[in-house]
Write a structure and sequence with these properties.
Blueprint (H helix, E strand, L loop, with lengths): L1 H19 L8 H7 L4 H6 L6 H13 L3 H17 L5 H10 L19
Helix pairs in contact: 2-5
């Protein structure tokens, strides 16, 4: 009986810990770059409108970046990618969210201070 009581007590403690543990879904640069991969040719050439898979990626990234830390991470990842991928046109990158009908709270630019993104 004492062993069963200890087991039940341990399970209750475990349930409390699991139910109160914070759930974090941190955005990672790999997720940002793979989501926006379909945009690379558009970002190099511009054009009338971004391809549908690109805009789907922009919308998915915007939906995934729900918290300030996630938006700051996305900002930094976009800046890193812009520096590593040759031929990206800064004006096309800055206008990409709007071209996809997405409103984001900062300008996509290598000069954006990502620490100030809310």
């Amino acid at each position: 009986m004492a062993a069963a009581l200890k087991l039940v007590s341990a399970l209750l403690v475990l349930c409390v810990l699991v139910n109160t543990a914070p759930i974090t879904h941190a955005l990672a640069c790999g997720q940002v770059t793979s989501t926006l991969g379909p945009c690379i040719s558009y970002l190099r050439t511009g054009g009338r409108s971004p391809p549908v898979p690109c805009c789907n990626g922009v919308r998915a990234l915007n939906a995934a970046a729900r918290t300030t830390p996630d938006r700051q991470t996305a900002c930094r990842c976009l800046q890193t990618a812009a520096r590593q991928i040759s031929g990206i046109k800064p004006n096309v990158a800055a206008s990409l969210p709007g071209a996809c009908g997405v409103n984001i709270p900062y300008k996509i630019s290598t000069s954006t201070d990502c620490a100030k993104v809310k």
